[in-house]
Fold this protein.
Amino acid sequence: MDGILVLNKPKGFTSHDCVFKVRKILKTKKVGHTGTLDPEVTGVLPICIGKATKLVEFLTAEQKTYIGEVTIGFSTTTEDQTGEVVEKKEVTESISQEKIEQVLKELTGEIDQTPPMFSAVKINGKKLYEYAREGKVIDRPSRKITIYDLFLTSEIKHENDTLKFSFEVSCSKGTYVRTLAVQIGELLGYPAHMSLLTRVASGNFKIDQAITLEELEVLMVNDKVDSVLVPMENALNSLPKLEISDTVAEKVQNGAVLTFPEEFDGEAEYFSVFHNNACLAIYMKHPTKPGLMKPKKVFHGQDSGL
């Protein structure tokens, strides 16, 4: 049983909870998720089974797409609907759709983001949420993230001195959509938080192919789990693909450094190297030698795929 299960994560479960449940249902220990979703967030959570666990770090790095709701009018400790209220400011003015769309446009592209205190980012060997639970707020460095697309997807609703609207965002690894909701509020002149969030895509995996834990249990009983597992080779479709000859294949299996192909997208982080329809390795740009690329991970055994 090897491949990627596209799970529709339920509300109230951590990503680790989901891994635990999948292990129990499938009766296998080799299970790993491809990027943490907060307990209140629902949607696409690709889970690697068996040999596919070798791909976790590459699938984690892929672009994600979310549909979220931002509430303008008060902020919270966690930057989402689960936290305690920190600051309030009644929304008494009428904020136009044009103004909101302008703010979303300003936040599109490469922007700076400061990780929230309730997050798993480590500072001095300790996770931020551990400091937060002790009531501490510490300085944390901002980082560059990329917002590829960000647009309004609903009407603007005034409700109890607050304003709410939904948005869709496609973003890079490391983006906190909670923090993005706060940033939207800041540009509108108000405290804000993220009140709902669903991940609708993670790399090539979409919400319409995701199944629930209950559906997985039924498939297991009927011995049909393989019918929903995405083959490992297919999971790498989003990576630039390099087909190589027999001679080069032998070098790849030995971890050789290769010339960087001119036709590859210069912004891509990783590249899949194929021979006879099997992925032999994942390569990356060489960090110190321009024009070359080095192996990030080499997979042995062409007969069995990865």
Summary: The longest helix spans residues 15-26. The mean pLDDT is 88. The chain has three domains: 3-62+203-235, 65-194, 241-304.
